[in-house]
Amino acid sequence: MSRTILIYGQSGAGKTTSCRNLDPASTFFIDCDGKGLSWRGWRKNYNADNKNYFRTDELDPHTKISVPFLIRAVATGEPYKHIKTIVVDGISTLMVTDEFRRRKEKGFDKYQDLAACIFETVKQAASYRDDLTVVFIGHVDIERDQNGAEIFSQVRTSGQKLKRIVLESLFTTVLYAKTDGAQYWFETTPQKSTAKAPIGALPEKVENDIAEVIARLIEFEEG
User: Fold this and answer.
1) Omega within 30 of 0 (cis) for the link into 107
2) Which residues fall within 8 angstroms of residue 132, CB to CB, at 6 or more apart?
3) Which residues, including other chains, have CB under 8 Å from residue 13's CB and lie 6 or more apart?
4) Nearby residues of 82 by Cβ (< 8 Å), 6 or more positions away
5) Which of 15, 24, 111, 218 has the highest CB neighbour count under 10 A?
6) d(Cα 189, Cα 172) in Å, to the nearest integer?
7) Distance (Å, rounded) from C-alpha 91 to C-alpha 157?
8) Which of 133, 173, 137 has the alpha carbon at shortest distance from 17?
9) Do 26 and 46 form a contact (C-beta atoms < 8 A)?
10) Which phi and psi (to 5°) does residue 26 adopt?
11) Distance of alpha carbon 218 from alpha carbon 27, whole angstroms
12) Would you report the helix, strand and coil content of the chain in percent, each value rounded to 5?
């Protein structure tokens, strides 16, 4: 069973940058936003020649350049046995792009299809080899009161079906990326949010370093 992690937060909260300390030799990056990575010298480590970086916002699992197809190929393919971490940046972009591509379609079938694709992609990501971690990165929806104070935050999804599914319910670790402009961190407990982690695995507030988070989770799982 693979390890799956969901990171969500506002733009600029350090979601992508939290991947800066992952080992490029054992990481495969799927860039759905098409904006590149966000730390100095990333192109040297993540590129087509190294076969560890791919840009796509395609969700259809029957397409060979789609996110679910790539996850499966890397998770099960012989040439990728050395890959220990797959990063999907970002799952919210996949949903919005799929909506735009099918904007001329009438009815609710397209939202049913979208929900099914996202649900199956996340569920299948957790079904692969034990030494694999799949990290999904998404944007945040923030509910505020009349004074602008944050009431509740959760990952942004498209369509009512996905809201009813509650995407976070498919993960045991959900990290809420936050910043005050000077420091960057993950919340790991539900403080007006859907953040969560296995009991005792992580402190309530941890540095936004996904490599460190994964190391702590592995240590926790192995006892």
Assistant:
1) no
2) 2, 3, 75, 83, 84, 85, 86
3) 177, 178, 179, 184, 208
4) 25, 26
5) 15
6) 11
7) 9
8) 137
9) no
10) -130, 20
11) 16
12) 35, 25, 45
DSSP summary character for residue 98? H
**Tokens 């098409």 correspond to what residue?**
34
The edge-to-edge listing of strands for the beta sheet with 133-138 is: 53-55, 27-31, 85-89, 133-138, 3-9, 173-179, 184-187, 205-207
Tens digit of pLDDT at every position of the chain (223 positions): 999 999 999 999 999 999 999 999 999 999 999 999 999 999 999 999 999 999 999 998 889 999 999 999 999 999 999 999 999 998 999 988 877 777 667 766 777 788 888 999 999 999 999 999 999 999 999 999 999 899 999 998 887 767 777 899 999 999 999 999 999 999 999 989 999 999 999 999 999 999 999 999 999 999 8
Instruction: Please classify residue 192 by burial: count the beta carbons closer than 10 Å to its beta carbon, then call 0-12 exposed, 13-18 middle and 19+ buried.
Output: middle
Structure token digits, residue 161: 């079906």
Buried b (16+ CB within 10 A) or exposed e, 35-55: eebeeeebeebbeeeeebbbe
